[in-house]
Amino acid sequence: MSARVxxxxxxxxxxxxxxxxxxxxxxxxxxxYALFTGVSLVLGYDLGGIVNTLRRITFLSAIYAMLVLAxxxxxxxTGLFNLGVAGFMAVGVYTMGxxxxxxxxxxxxxxxxxxxxxxxxxxxxxxxxxxASLPALRLRGDYLAIVTLAFSEIVRLTxxxxxxxxxxxxxxxxxxxxxxxxxxxxxxxxxxxxxxxxEVTSPPSAFGEAVFGTFEAIGVRAPVVEGTAYAIVLLFVxxxxxxxLRRVGNSPFGxxxxxxxEDETVAGALGKDTRLFKVKVFALGxxxxxxxxxxxxxxxxxxxxxxxxxxxxxxFVALIIGGAGSNTGSVVGGAVFASLLFEGxxxxxxxxxxxxxxxxxxxxxxxxxxxxxxxxxxxxxLLAYTISDVNVSALRLVLLGVVLIYLIQNxxxxxxxxxxxxxxxxxxxxxxxxxxx
Amino acid sequence: xxxxxxxxxxxGYGDLQILDGVDMDVGSEAYVAxxxxxxxxxxxxxxxxxxxxxxxxxxxxxxxxxxxxxxPSEIITRGLSYVPQSDNVFAGLTVRENLEMGxxxxxxxxxxxxxxxxxxxPILEERQGQRAGSLSxxxxxxxxxxxxxxLDPDLLLLDEPSAGLAPDLVAEMFDxxxxxxxxxxxxxxxxxNAKEALRRCDRGYVLVQGQNRHEDTGRALLDDERVRxxxxxG
Amino acid sequence: xxxxxxxxxxxxxxESAATTDADADAPLLQVRELEKSFGxxxxxxxxxxxxxxxTITGxxxxxxxxxxxxxxxxxxxxxxxxxxxxxxxxxxxxxxxxxxxxxxxxxxxQIARELDEMTVLENxxxxxxxxxxxxxxxxxxxxxxxxxxxxxEQLREQAWETLEFLELDHxxxxxxxxxxxxxxxxxxxxxxxxxxxxxxxxxxxLAGVNPTLEEKLLDRLHSLRDDGYTFxxxxxxxxxxxxHCEPVIVLHQGEVLVEGSPEQVKNDDRVLEAYLGGxx
Amino acid sequence: xGGDGGGSGRxxxxxxxxxxxxxxxxxGPPIRNAAQLVPQQVNDxxxxxxxxxxxxxxxxxxxQGVSGGNALVNAGYPMICGALSSEVSLxxxxxxxxxxxxTMCSPASTAPDFTTLEDNDYFxxxxxxxxxxxxVLARIASERQGHSSAATLYLNNAYGNGLSAGFVDSFENEFxxxxxxxxxxxxxxxxxxxxxxxxxxxxxDVLLVVGYPGSGVTIFRDYYNDYSADRDILVSDGxxxxxxxxxxxxxxxxxxxxxxxxxxxxxxxxxxxxQQVYDADPSGKPFTRQSYDAAAxxxxxxxxxxxxxxxxxxxxxxxxxxxxxxxxxxGNLVEGIEMAANGDAVNYQGVSGPVAFDEAGDLAAATYxxxxxxxxxxxxxxxxxx
Amino acid sequence: xxxxxxxxxxVAFVRERAVLIxxxxxxALLVADLFRKLGTGALTAASLAGFVKDGTxxxxxxxxxxIGLAMTYSILNFANFAHGDYITVGGVVGWITAFLVTGLGxxxxxxxxxxxxxxxxxxxxxxxxxxxxxxxxxxSVVVTAGLAxxxxxxxxxxMRGQRGIALLIASVGVAxxxxxxxxxxxxxxxxxxxxxxxxxxxxxxxxxxxxxxTAHEATLxxxxxxxxxxxxxxxxYTTFGTAMRAMAxxxxxxxxxxIPTERVIRTTWLLGAGLTGAAxxxxxxxxxxxxxxxxxxxxLLVFAAVILGGIGSVYGAMVGGLVIGLAxxxxxxWLPESFIIAAAFVVMIVMLLVRPQGxxxxxxxx
Lengths: 437, 234, 280, 386, 366
Ligand SMILES: Nc1ncnc2c1ncn2[C@@H]1O[C@H](COP(=O)(O)OP(=O)(O)OP(=O)(O)O)[C@@H](O)[C@H]1O
Ligand SMILES: Nc1ncnc2c1ncn2[C@@H]1O[C@H](COP(=O)(O)OP(=O)(O)OP(=O)(O)O)[C@@H](O)[C@H]1O
Ligand SMILES: CC(C)C[C@H](N)C(=O)O
Ligand SMILES: [Mg+2]
Ligand SMILES: [Mg+2]
What we know:
The complex is a heteropentamer. By secondary structure, chain B is α/β, with parallel strands linked by helices. Helices cover 37% and strands 27% of the residues of chain B. Chain B is built from 10 helices and 10 strands. Chain B has helices spanning 42-49, 72-76, 95-102, 111-120, 122-126, 137-149, 167-182, 194-200, 218-223, 225-232; strands at 4-13, 16-26, 31-35, 54-62, 65-66, 80-83, 155-159, 186-190, 203-208, 211-217. In chain B, the strands form 2 sheets. A 6-stranded mixed β-sheet of chain B has the order 6-7-8-3-9-10, with helices on both faces. The N and C termini of chain B lie far apart (36 Å). Chain D is built from 12 helices and 15 strands. In chain D, helix 1 links the parallel strand 1 (11-18) and strand 2. The longest helix of chain D has 18 residues, at 288-305. The site of one magnesium ion has 4 residues of chain C, from helix 1.
């Protein structure tokens, strides 16, 4: 009898647990959307502009969520401090590009079908991850951090080198485009809307025509429609990655990862081949990072400027915001980071410029000109200086730094707090079968 | 008046309270043992005296002065030394450097004290250049004792000094502690080797779940049926 | 991405404890001429001994005699400079710890090493061998995952039983980092018991354990021994050695000094001098 | 915010997308300032027209340029004045302007690539293509300086690649010289001594450096540390920064260079305006004139189109700056806007000369200045028409 | 079976040494090839000497910049990612001082403070303005040390006892905040500092050509070596040095031993950051220019140097710096320019794999 009640309770609590995560994410999404709709209205955007703003928020949040989820597997679960995120992302993107861009473009690619390119990119990132994990087999903590960071710089410098700008292997010419970068294949979402999805100038298909027509009528332009559709697809991808990693974490596999994080020698002494686990985690995580990066850049440009260490730090900030070790936290962190910290400051700037009238040419160009007038209680120059685009982008990074320090000092467990995601495929919160000895 | 007077002490870690109204006295030159089950809070008492836990109430007086608010580096200068239960040597330093660190608060390292420690634990002299982390478990325990003796303290806090020692060394360790005690240093000791500890000490406390359970002379506790049954394994 | 299960290594996992081997009379563990030195210090110097199946063999010796190092060498935490370790008929010299463990030979650490940010229950469930869910794909793919869940349910029950026995069940959901020194030792023991190995090397498992519990533990060791487990036990408490171990091996300066029954050992002059604090 | 067609006032929306940080942090701000004179002029004038500008910084990086461009599109700007670096313009055109149907007019992107860009005619520019500048530089090296061997050290982006290739082609094929080495480099490194040693390993007579001041300072410092101050060095427009000798910390007598420099009817007016608003002299600051012109033409085209719609602006880009309509100069720009809005034909004659776009959206005519570095900045030696 | 074991241990032995042997062979091969290239004239002695000089100068910069990092690394047990920006701060404040000392009176103050004044007209060099340079050096030491203490108080002190990774993350936050506050106040863009024409230099004939050494390179080299030796003496012959290591090892125990842990930490920051500030100033002197991110760009190379030498070893930082500096410049003999930084990183990674404790170090952090 009591066993039944217990079972029921467990089921309820499990349902509730799952539900509360979902509810949390829903509330977050609604909140962010409301916020950015409001801001867009203040900025006087038309419907097209609003939709496009929300699209961008969704898109960036989804990409960061994926990156953070992947990193969480490595750091949150296994304790592997991988500071090479940007490098693995680059491997994914560049491999995809070299496989799938047309042989006729500059730099040339192999012109293979896009799915092969994407798969190839993910596999390459996973393989490179596995190779990079070899040091991880011997090193821990900050050594690993520095090695992976150096590794990602090696990757970036290699892609940027003129030596590989265009080169040929086995008679095929290929290239990374050096520091110019490489144009990637068009976004696959275009298949939905265009006759010839690979051509930028292609006319829309009948379906595309109909959809674009409908939205055009309410002021939403075709690229926005296209981008919104893509963002929605990305949300599904995130959901998939989330489900995958949740299962990975809540399993005996995940339990071993946790054990490695806590004390590798113990895990080994208990019969776990820790090296193999670490290699797998690196491969899986880096493969996912490659995938996220591909989805991020596809239809655009692969440029080494996007894969500098700062990109890695962005992902880390997002992870810390959400809370290391928690998958739901990773998604929350990705979304909060991308929309508030990454995009937010520029919106603040736009809103402020909307309300504060700074005459053309009146923005002070030095801090002295900005601060000087304070003596006569004139704050406008300082404000103008502060919110000028140049300084906003500097201040955004200052803000990022401060947030990072604040979180790690005061809330190292992240927004979601310590969520005990127990590493087991079954519920551990209660002893089932009522041990009424 | 006792050298160390603990009154109604509440302490713990962060929000977690472990000690609940603990009272203890260590007279000057006394020899006091604390025994009790695992997790009772014995180590926590020691850490609290040394200012390493979250203080939650009560008082700790040493030599008539309140020390509950002070930090360890302040406390040590008043004549207390502490040998923690685990992690009690500087693993990366040599044996000799470990001893030197024991005397850090003095201006120079008194060579005579080093000699005295070496005399007590000859293996340390042999290994004085070796990294402490690579000593055997027992050797580390000896080194930890040696480090604490460098200051010639008035009160020595020992957390399970005999754990991991070979029988001859256990006996020897207890003898040394007796000697130290006889030479005028008060000793407050936590031991799982309860019988031996109670046999030798002047006074014993049995701590259970953060509270005083029994308190008497060592002999009396040894003879107490309840204590025997509950904690000394028959 | 590799799909090999971690236990599909060159060391085949042996699911059940002991007794399955054909040559049941041969010693379970044979250590021959083991040597290991660090810089100028020879920690283990030609140690040679055997451990028979179904015994609780004692390993004693002065501090620094090389007991813990011998454990390290036998279980692969360190590699010997020379010598040989044979376990259950297989030469396991130089194997890595996880290989030895999967072969049925595990050890505890003298200074307890717990997995702080895992709960006590997770700690216990981590240990067992042959967990299908340690295979990444099985843990994830629908369908095959059923088997994982089923096994997990079993493990959970087994873990609860083990914790109960060691009086840790009230702490099952605590983080291991919050345990007291003695509780950590118990947890370490719980973990190795969960592995159900053939042989367990215990490095001072009773140091710091309260006497009442100590007795219960020793009782349990005996009943496990009767179930076919084999123990090699390092312990400094001579009462324990005398009353519970048979035979006893005395290690001194990295080599075996004496081997025999507790009585013999206790009355051996060399042991008295080297270890017991010689009232010769 | 649709247009109401006729001559009565409306708000013209123009986005500015330029790099004022990053590699072009020296050259960018004056170029932006010049463009902002146009809205300033209109908004201060007594007219019903208003120009709504929003500025976004590209940080001279393609990715940031694209996100800035998107922000402008979101806010409903139908046309973008910018970007500066060819590299950035290329990406913004491909990823933002062309797909969204936004008209772009760059005041500074000179790479040859744009001539052949498939852009649905959405991309225009007010400076001439580097296909011409490469020839001019080769002529100077060969005929004026009398050199027969040269090396190039160029920024690895659309601009550097294009200009270096143009120079090499012209120097070898038209003037029969030899190019001993062409070495590329990327922005933001701490030292360029190894690139220099590679470029100069065969001791060429002259070295052409193509890049931006961001890394130029370091390149020249490294050069003077290890090599002779007597070798002729040529630079391109991107290094026409008066601050350069000051930052390099020595005189740069051996360095000369070229930059597009049109001379139109509005120069005096423009210089005066600039001086008045910014309290600085725009001369010697490359692309400031072109920048004013780019903004002016966009605003005129928008006025003529009568609505803030990208395609309509595009369709009017050519009509407002050629033909036999009423001549409009910077001095009477505001009138010109009113006329254009009324549907009258206008022909804009800019600060840098006529702004007549050809098929590709390039300028038909071009002039360059040949400049040298002096103690106080840069000075024009002569103007050259290829 | 016995032979089995022997092969087992032999295999293990060979495996452990194999990497080392392979590495040795590889280096030998490179050296041989170097001589071949010199012999055939594919490489001139002068350009090789140029590489060596450049590598040495870079190496000494890295070594000097690395000492502070090595000190804080061993004591506080974390990799300080803000270290690069401390270098930048040292360079910036030192040079603002030098500018003001030289230019005040004849120039406007604002461009001097913003480092916008023309370095050409200011004409600073060791020979023309030694006082300004000396004062700049002093200020860079003082201000950087002060800043490090302040940041320690605000950021790191509340986090004492936390794991190295948490501190590392906090230091990334510090790095971003410091760097971009500099950018906010001073704006980006490179600043020229010294006057090229006023700087003496000497041509040393090598083979058929020559190698130029400037007075500023020489200054950097001499001061770097002097500061390194000074630091070593300080750490080696004081109990403070031992206390530092004791703390690095086991902070709790250090506390109960009565070591005033906070004071040791403060002193470490003071010394380490002071040296770092000096390094920033001197590196900028040698380069003749700085940007707001030059320290950050150096950071990974500095890490490489420190790790190579063995974390916590001052001599190690010096040797590591030289190895990294020389490796990156000499790699030009074989590799295109775009790979020289990568080459330095590869050297570091290989080193970590083969000898995780570094060339000279003993202490490792886990
Ligand atoms: N750092 C800590 N944080 C939180 N809880 C702690 C900490 N250290 C100890 N505890 C808890 O405090 C209680 C008392 O621990 P303490 O170490 O004082 O026990 P003890 O009596 O010394 O036991 P033992 O004989 O096993 O060493 C235990 O329940 C333990 O889990
Ligand atoms: N990594 C190492 N480096 C140097 N010496 C070591 C190392 N490990 C162990 N030793 C030395 O080897 C000897 C044997 O140590 P071991 O830990 O095996 O002793 P033990 O018998 O377990 O002693 P105890 O009973 O005190 O635990 C000791 O002298 C010890 O100092
Ligand atoms: C601002 C200019 C220097 C830009 C340069 N002409 C380019 O096309 O990249
Ligand atoms: Mg205790
Ligand atoms: Mg031992």
